[in-house]
Write a structure and sequence with these properties.
Oligomer: single chain
Structural class: alpha+beta
Radius of gyration: 23 Å
Largest sheet: 7 strands, antiparallel
Helix content: 40-55%
Number of strands: 11
Strand content: 5-15%
Shape: elongated
Distance between the termini: 56 Å
């Protein structure tokens, strides 16, 4: 079920959180989304709520749900119906589920344990008029994947557990995570088929790059479909966290491909690739993992974090570590030197002791493409801004090298007695690092 959010500050050019969009394309989507949502009040989703609460909806009999939602079957003759019907077998195969999918005009998108998946034909038809074919196809696929993930939750968890208020945000995040995993798999299947015989590293990187951007756009536009009136939007993760849930799903989807291929072939080369991913992202799973348990753990870790920062691997809680390290840098080089061991988990950190300053150099080398590397840089820059500016640090103008190969942002404290620098360089290597360095000047 999709909640509503706004992007007004971002549209005005202000990065408001750690999931700030990192390309013109995604900025345009955010601004389009804001204009659509601010023109549509929550009461527009349905003239009258057909269920008093989410619990009442889930507890209702299938026949009652379908009657109250005005359920209509998908046809074979209508173009919109055909688009959705074409996606259903693909999503069903991924989740190994075959729930009924029906129209519930004006009611938003929802899932019910016995009635199945309800889609809002009115909202989808309006969106179809505003988007080109590929964008609309991605949105419908994302919504189906998200709702099918809810059907998977009904199969894997008790209804009593899914009705617990404290779990609702994690439930939504887990559904977004599965949607991201499904979509990157399908996009890679399609692209690899087109690339037949040309699956070189640059080709694979380009596929991931394009897929990540398309899925991010689909997530943003899916908000427009709306939340059913009986569903409380405050039980949904904030947009920043939902983007992190999906980003985590994209990485998980790539790992799923490797793990499933290895389990089918036993190839040592595939096992080496799986191990390489896990070395870069310690939270990723390996062969034999229970993916519903893993996605549940990941979802809870994301939504339970009060101040979230995003890296491409979906790792969180950098804010506390950065705050601790920068406080030490303010106190002096000896204090910063003492933070070399804990560093800023989960980043890889090492200390340096130069003539004029002590430094802590940390890096995230999990980016698989140039666009994801740029996302990571902007995310770490936004995290640094949120931690440092309230403490009286000053942000310096962003620096780009003359040839455009390097980009850096610096924050200084106490007339230059301490500094934090976020930096990345373009590279053709498989793993593209982003660096976050903290310096404390010697007196």
């Amino acid at each position: 079920m999709f909640d509503k959010s706004t992007a007004v500050l971002r549209c005005r050019g202000t990065i408001t959180n750690a999931s700030a969009l990192a390309s013109i394309d995604r900025l345009v989507v955010a601004c389009l989304l804001f204009s659509l949502l601010t023109a549509t009040s929550s009461s527009d989703v349905s003239a009258q709520s057909v269920f008093s609460t989410r619990d009442a909806f889930l507890a209702a009999d299938s026949s009652v749900v379908r009657a109250r939602l005005g359920a209509l079957s998908l046809t074979k003759s209508v173009a919109l119906d055909s688009i959705v019907r074409a996606d259903i077998p693909v999503v069903s195969a991924f989740f190994q589920l075959s729930p009924d999918v029906f129209w519930a005009d004006g009611q938003g998108s929802s899932s019910h344990p016995t009635a199945g998946v309800a889609l809002d034909r009115q909202r989808l038809a309006t969106m179809r008029e505003q988007l080109d074919g590929s964008d609309f196809g991605d949105v419908t696929l994302f919504i189906l994947a998200h709702e099918f993930a809810h059907m998977g939750q009904f199969r894997n968890y008790s209804l009593a557990t899914l009705r617990e208020t404290s779990r609702l945000k994690a439930i939504e995040c887990q559904a977004d995570l599965w949607a991201g995993a499904l979509m990157i798999n399908l996009m890679m299947d399609s692209a690899m088929a087109r690339a037949a015989g040309r699956a070189t590293r640059p080709v694979v990187t380009a596929i991931v790059d394009e897929g990540f951007a398309r899925i991010s756009k689909a997530l943003a536009l899916a908000y427009q479909i709306g939340t059913p009136v009986w569903d409380d939007p405050t039980t949904h993760p904030l947009p920043a966290k939902r983007q992190l849930c999906v980003a985590r799903g994209v990485n998980a989807g790539i790992q799923m491909r490797l793990v499933r291929a290895y389990e089918q072939t036993g190839s040592p080369e595939l096992l080496n690739q799986i191990s390489a991913w896990r070395a870069k992202d310690r939270d990723l799973f390996g062969p034999g993992a229970d993916l519903w348990a893993w996605t549940n753990t990941q979802a809870k870790s994301i939504v339970e974090n009060e101040q979230i920062g995003q890296s491409p691997g979906g790792r969180i809680d950098l804010i506390g570590g950065l705050r601790r390290v920068t406080e030490s840098a303010e106190m002096g080089p000896d204090y910063l030197r003492s933070e070399a061991s804990p560093g800023i988990p989960p980043l890889e950190c090492s200390s340096t002791d130069e003539i004029d300053a002590v430094g802590l150099v940390c890096k995230d080398s999990s980016a698989l493409s140039a666009k994801i590397q740029l996302d990571a840089y902007n995310n770490y820059r936004a995290i640094a801004r949120g931690v440092l500016l309230p403490r009286g640090w000053a942000e310096q103008p962003e620096q780009l090298s003359a040839n455009g190969d390097t980009t850096s942002s610096a924050f200084v404290w106490g007339s230059g007695r301490a500094a934090v620098i976020v930096f990345f360089a373009k590279t053709a290597r498989q793993w593209r690092p982003v660096f976050l360095t903290v310096l404390s000047k010697k007196y």
